[in-house]
Recover the amino acids of this structure.
């Protein structure tokens, strides 16, 4: 998938639309403190088995997180992740 190196989008820090540099961000490990994970750990604790059918196979492609760095204020934020094969950054 072709992704532009620079994109004009909303900056939550400047509170206006500005030009951003686009980079990939490593996905961080999912939090163990979320409600779903706490529930899962509680259900799988002890001698019981897995609480639901085991996941079959792998996902077709990994999720990609885009880190957008504002050129005005220099702060960055992460856009919602999406699935894509090989990301290719191209200049417009």
């Amino acid at each position: 998938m072709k992704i532009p190196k620079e994109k004009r989008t909303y900056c939550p820090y400047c509170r206006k639309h500005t030009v951003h540099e686009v980079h990939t961000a490593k996905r961080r490990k999912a939090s163990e403190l979320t409600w779903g994970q706490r529930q899962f750990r509680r259900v799988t604790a002890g001698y019981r088995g897995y609480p639901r059918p085991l996941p079959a196979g792998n996902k077709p492609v990994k999720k990609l997180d885009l880190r957008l760095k504002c050129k005005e204020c220099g702060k960055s934020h992460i856009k919602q992740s999406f699935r894509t094969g090989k990301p290719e950054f191209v200049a417009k």
Observations:
- Helices lie at 35-44.
- The two ends are 14 Å apart (CA to CA).
- The longest strand covers residues 16-25.
